[in-house]
Amino acid sequence: MKNISRSALLRASVAPVILGVMLPAAAIAQEQPAAENAETIVVTGSRIATPNQISAAPVTTLSAENIRESGYSKIEDLANTLPQVFAGQSSGVSNGADGTATIDLRGLGPSRTVVLIDGRRLMPGNIGGGAGADLNFIPGALVQAVDLLTGGASSTYGADAVAGVVNFKMNRGFRGIRLDGQYSLYSHKNDDEDIQAVVNRKYRAPAGNTNTGGAYDATLAFGVGFDDDRGSIVGYAGYRHDSAITQAGYDYSVCTLNPDAANNYFDCGGSGTPARPRIGGISAANAALAGIPTASSYTLTDNGTLTPYSSLRDAYNFGPVNYFRRPSDRYTAGLFAEYEIDEHFKPYMDFMFMDYSTKAQIAAAGAFYGPRTVNCDNPFLQGTQTGRAICGAALGTNATADFLLGKRNIEGGPRFNDIGFNQFRIVTGLRGDISDAWNYDAYVQFGQIKVANTYRNDTSNTKIDNALNVVNVGGVATCQSVVDGTDPSCVPYNVFTPNGVTPAAAAYIGIPLVLTGTTKETIVNGSVVGDLGMYGFKSPFAEDGVKIVLGAEYRKEQLATQPDQAYINGDGAGQGGPTLPIEGQYTVKDLFTEANIPLVMDRPFFDALALTLGYRHSSYNVQGATSQNKADTFKIEGTWSPIRDIKFRGSFNRAVRSPNISELFFNQQVGLFSGSDPCAGAAPSATAAQCALTGVTAAQYGNIDVNSAAQYNQLSGGNLNLRPEKANTWTAGVILQPSFVPGLLFSVDYFNIKVKDAVGTIGSQVILNQCIQSGDPFFCSKINRSPASAGAAAGSLWLDESGFVNNQTTNTGSLKTSGFDLNGNYSTSIGNNKLRWQFVGTVLDKYIAQPITGGFSYDCAGFYGITCGNPSPKFRFQTNLKWTFANDIALTARWRHLSKVKVDTISSDPDLASPGAAPTVDEVLKAQNYIDLQASLPLKDTITLRLGMNNVFDKNPPLVSQASLGGFGNGNTFPGTYDFLGRQLFVNLTADF
User: Motif TonB box: which residue numbers (predicted)?
Assistant: First the structure.
């Protein structure tokens, strides 16, 4: 299996690549209204401080207590506990990992979710990876609360907040010294008899208990006030380490699962580039001369003979060495400081720093199955069946022969991708009162990320070609490049005789690849907030007056990457294509305003009626673009409480998102996508007539090799001529807080988000399927099969770079998602004990993608697969019950649920289903239920010990074959969606001094 290309992973695809997850959170709380006499509070989603009011759009809050109870030290795991969140990049990704941890609200992509720290934007987290912020940067121990506003917030925080915002609130008021430490590991019993029977047919499945993945996290924080508390400093320093977990330790991931020949059961398969040499492109005449049957390819056996290649027998099992969870080390430090000179001048400063490194390990590289050339007087060919098959009658002459070669460089070991991040963020600002009615806030923010990416143990196409061109020099096999002096270090690569590859040859063809880059973000923001009620601007039916905000913002995004020459030339055999430099920048100038208008207060049937209006004008200047984009976004929100027990709320938001740097400047290149070619194989699932539409000739039909790793070529890249996309977001809900049941709050909110003219890609699999099903020239013209001149690769979409699907970034059709959010909270006292119940759930009604405006569409709600991506359950929830005793000992039980999903290839929608029958074994992934337990034990007034266990019953994840998994999961499952490492045990200690 090759490395999934960056272009495939970093694009914002219109095909719903839904990276879904719902991991445990101890408790989720719908934002509560302030008490009647509470101080003014600020609600995420508005720049106006509003007393006695909750957000008009649905906001879900995770408290510091929830964070500690969850047992997760990583913010990525913390954020992914919520049903509204779909996982982006995470530590469960190894093949194609960019090292970051991103968040994706509503499955609309990380580039449509804005991440904030105390209401200020967090910079993009990667080089060339779109606009997703890296959650690794967030110090979890200092987070006081996390607010998720999923009703749209473009007019408030920026036009790219299409899906909403995630606001991490820091504990700026902390005083004292706190040490927070946690240790965790995973424990799993390998006892799946069915899957062990499958594995043991070819390999040896692990049995018994495995305890692995030790991780520890420690943070030291301090907070001090000075000068009679006019000044404040809060600082922190932390270290986190995660140990590596490989797929070898689990019976369900140790072998790469494929459907059997009848598609009914699992069997161990893998990559079409095996450990033993695979030889293809042999003519029928040469096969007869060599005494072998005609076949598309052959495996070199241990006795030196060629036998027809079988994917189930000969495919390379890349599972065991792949990381199931990447190891990582993170160092963080930061400082939040402020000082009140007087009520008019209150300077403040934030400084946050992170040094983060992680390693992605995947299977060995090699000469990935594809076209090669060899000289027929190569001494390794003489007297062999392989030599007669490749060269035929020309064997022993100075002629050359073209053939197909696949050979894993297992002698050289697995590939490593060492990824290092060094990043910091500085905010300096000044706020204060202008008068009794007006206050201001102005700040400058700068963030920078430097990335060093070193890809080790790949193989060089150039060196492989050199090492295959071998001549006899005085009885010694010698590279021709040594003879002519073009490469004196060349070592002959003998793949024509059993066990012929020497350690020296394996080391020679190995190559490191180095990519460095920098992302910078500069923001200048200023705003004033006024209470016009002090001037008499108020409704005659309301006590509170109109409040407004006026502001302006300048933002500059810069990106530059520099790959080494081997990356640029595409010399890495496992990379899927060249990786080219990127350099670009754009600026945004915004003017924004917001108004909160209380209309009626404390009247019959109108306990409260209020309206919130917002508007933002954005002007984008893109380097190299021929025109300047302008965008106007706005919001209209309202709340109505006929009585105190009931509140109705609704909102409409218009968002206009301009393309980000990656979408604009990513270079055109051929890389890999995960999918299938319906016209490949001896018995294609599409007919000859259908395949002809995609460029397959009659002679090629039935003779195109299948890529058993489910990876094919696509042409992808940025586009400076992209237009901004538009989105409409509707929400409507009700909050019930009955006075006759003290402590109970329940809310139901409907959401509906539609993105038009979406910036992204159509999806290579969608293009293939639509061409075959409809014959539409628009889709068929995007399929470029390798020409007849490519020899044995002719007709292929993966054997060489001349065959690909054109899947460049463009303004496509639309994305639409809708459903309901459910939140419930109840707390009461029973004697001296306290009981708390919390519930959060999402009902996904629709997730509709329309790749072309006015064209076909398909609904991925309740599906997963090559087109729909990660599972998108229609119903997800988690609920917990916490009992706190009089001595402050607390016990918490949590139940997490994900409803079943079906593979998209069996959908009744012909625009979603792929041609041919789906593997029966993949048709349905059953509903999953997890139980978690946690205990909190106060050892002293200032020391608390927490013990916990997530996935108490060690439930195995649902398993998926390679045919349906594609590149969206790994280890035969979807780590972003399901618990995949077994039972998690953790212990946490918090000590205040």
Answer: 40-46
